[in-house]
Amino acid sequence: MVKFARLQLQDDAAGEDVVQEAIEAALAGIDRFAGRAALKTWVFTILRHKIVDALRERGRTVQVSSLERDDESMDDTFDALFTASEHWRPDSRPRPWGDPHAALEQRQFWEVFEACLEVLPARTGRVFMMREFLGLETDEICNTLSLTTSHCHVILHRARAGLRQCLTQGWFGTEPAAC
């Protein structure tokens, strides 16, 4: 929880603070826990709301230097996956994933997924998690991080492609793709 909060807030102290607030809120509202989900899921949902609140409070404050590094390192990685005509290179084409529903139910999958998130550049992972885990709309992400909509979409595309590549290698195997 602390790692997730730190990444989203880009501040160790603020991350620890929102985790503490989430745990305090969970303890204070334990009588409202109905048991329809795991306790861990319920507390994480509270944490997500605390992080969104903290991001909204910050407004548009962002460190520009942290935004400029990620794109350059990702460009070379993704350029190598595609031909000049912007098609997948045969040896880079995504592999079939098999039954995704069965994989999602496995705890090990989420451990590999988390490891894949960690190898993404920090800002790329942050934007992906703001969209997919925190459920923020693109406009809100753009306002929070001072991004254009198109740049946000590029970052999300790179995050998904990077996660797919990592998951293909680390989880789903390396069988050749069916053409």
Describe this structure in words.
With 179 residues, this protein is an all-alpha fold. It has two domains: 1-58, Rna Polymerase Sigma Factor, Chain: A, CATH 1.10.1740.10; 65-179, Winged helix-like DNA-binding domain superfamily/Winged helix DNA-binding domain (Arc Repressor Mutant, subunit A, Orthogonal Bundle). It is 67% helix and 0% strand. The longest helix is centred in the C-terminal third of the chain and has 22 residues, at 149-170. The N and C termini lie far apart (41 Å).
**SS-based class:** mainly alpha
- Number of structural domains: 2
Number of helices: 9
End-to-end C-alpha gap: 41 Å
Q: Give the biggest sheet.
A: none
Shape: globular
Strand content: under 5%
Oligomer: single chain
CATH hierarchy, class of the largest domain: Mainly Alpha
Offer a few descriptive terms.
Rna Polymerase Sigma Factor, Chain: A; 67% helix; Arc Repressor Mutant, subunit A; 2 domains; mainly alpha
Q: What is the topology?
A:
Elements: H1 2-9, H2 12-28, H3 39-58, H4 64-79, H5 100-104, H6 107-119, H7 122-132, H8 138-145, H9 149-170
Provide a brief overview of the structure.
The chain is mostly helical and 179 residues long. The protein contains nine helices and no strands. It has helices at 2-9, 12-28, 39-58, 64-79, 100-104, 107-119, 122-132, 138-145, 149-170.
